[in-house]
Amino acid sequence: MAWQYSDKTKILFMNAVNGAQESHFGEIADADGIGEHGSISCGDAMRFFFKVKKADDPVNDVITEAKYSTFGCTSAIASSEALCAIIEQGQYTPIQALKIRNEDIVKFLEGLPSQKIHCSVMGAEALEAAVADWAQKRGVDLEALGIKLESKENEESRLVCKCFNVTEAEIRRKIVELNLHTLEDVVGALKAGGACGACQHAPGGIQDLLDERWGIGAGEIAAKAAADHGTPKLSPFQLSKRIEATIEEDIRPMLIADGGDVELIDIKENLVYISLTGACATCPGASGTIHYVVEKKLREKVDDTLRVIEV
Predict the structure, then answer these.
(1) Cα–Cα dist 290/264, whole Å
(2) Is 42 a catalytic residue?
(3) Whole-model pTM?
(4) Which of 162, 229, 238, 266 is least buried, going by the fewest C-beta atoms within 10 A?
(5) pLDDT, tens digit (0-9, with 9 covering 90-100), for 89-142
(6) CB atoms within 10 A of CB 266
(7) Contact 153, 169 (CB under 8 A)
(8) Strands 260-268 and 271-278: what pairing?
């Protein structure tokens, strides 16, 4: 099935695409704060700008205008619109704006698909970077005010996911903030582990961090029990039919909704060879689509040992 977006998310996205007057898409030439998060090579990137009404004491500066420049999907653009609207409607100071969390963005949008939560995280991180920029320009010592930026903590932390540059500190923090319990939860919220997958079960990797916080999850226990008792294997014919059905019914509609498509090339034992077409073929986030959308769905619906390879 295709991504299920709320009406509010669709409206915000279309306003941005069509250049509506109420859209916040664009840049502020003389911005008081500029922040970036993500990268085009990862499939999503955001640049966030804000302008303030300056007070005698810079701590009391009030954000009067917010804009963004985002490379990404429907969720990324709508999340950026939501962030700007929340800030402008709240008449926040930059320091007050730091209290905005990705869950506030999701709530404003009236929900996001679990696989798209990382788009709201991107907005909150870009905002923090912009506030840090404003503080430097206005001579505000955030640490003296008892404010420790998460981005600084991330810079000092061990890198866990090298594909998406996600640190141990960020993963630990988001596991608690977003109540993430499984590898799928983490990939959906942060993208971490969604490309090559090497960091998922590596020593000190994502699963270890999840286990450290929650203990061994019920899902893993159930999977282990099923493996111990043996699960009947599908015949090659059954396997191919289930893969074909899953691609046709679950995967293809999602990709078509974003202007792309997928073609099944071959199946050899547990290896599924596919080719991305349309917008997906040239998308910088293609590796994430293969591993997180195609491979994840095939593992859920067909066999958890399947690997997807693009040809």
Answers:
(1) 12
(2) yes
(3) 0.61
(4) 229
(5) 999 999 999 999 888 999 999 998 877 777 777 888 889 999 999 999 999 999
(6) 11
(7) yes
(8) antiparallel
Compute the distance between CA of residue 120 and CA of residue 96 in angstroms, rounded to an integer.
18
pLDDT digits (tens, 9 = 90+) for 33-79: 999 887 655 556 789 999 999 999 999 999 999 999 987 778 889 99
Quote the CA–CA distance of 225 and 203 in Å, as a whole number. 23
- How far is 181 from 176, CA to CA, in rounded Å? 9
270-274 average pLDDT score: 87
- How big is the CA angle at 259 (ends 257 and 265), to the nearest 5 degrees? 100
Specify whether the CB–CB gap between 46 and 102 falls below 8 A: no
- pLDDT grade, residue 230 (50/70/90)? very low
Q: What is the 3-state secondary structure (H, E, C) of the chain?
A: CCCCCCHHHHHHHHHHHCCCCCCCECCCCCCCEEEEEEEHHHCEEEEEEEEEECCCCHHHCEEEEEEEEEECCHHHHHHHHHHHHHHHHHCCCHHHHCCCCHHHHHHHCCCCCHHHHHHHHHHHHHHHHHHHHHHHHHCCCCHHHCCCCHHHHHHCCCEEECCCCEEHHHHHHHHHHCCCCCHHHHHHHHCCCCCCCCCCCCCCCHHHHHHHHHCCCHHHHHHHHHHHHCCCCCCHHHHHHHHHHHHHHHHHHHHHHCCEEEEEEEEECCEEEEEEEEHHHHCCCHHHHHHHHHHHHHHHHCCCCCEEEEC
- The catalytic position among 73, 84, 119, 163 is 119
Between 111 and 288, residue with greater pLDDT: 111
By DSSP bridging, strand 307-310 and strand 271-278 are parallel
Catalytic (active site) residue 199: no
- Domains of the chain, start order: 7-153 (3.90.1010.10), 169-229 (no CATH), 236-310 (3.30.300.130)
Give the pair of three-digit tokens for residue 14. Answer: 């279309």
Q: Are 142 and 149 in contact (CB under 8 A)?
A: yes
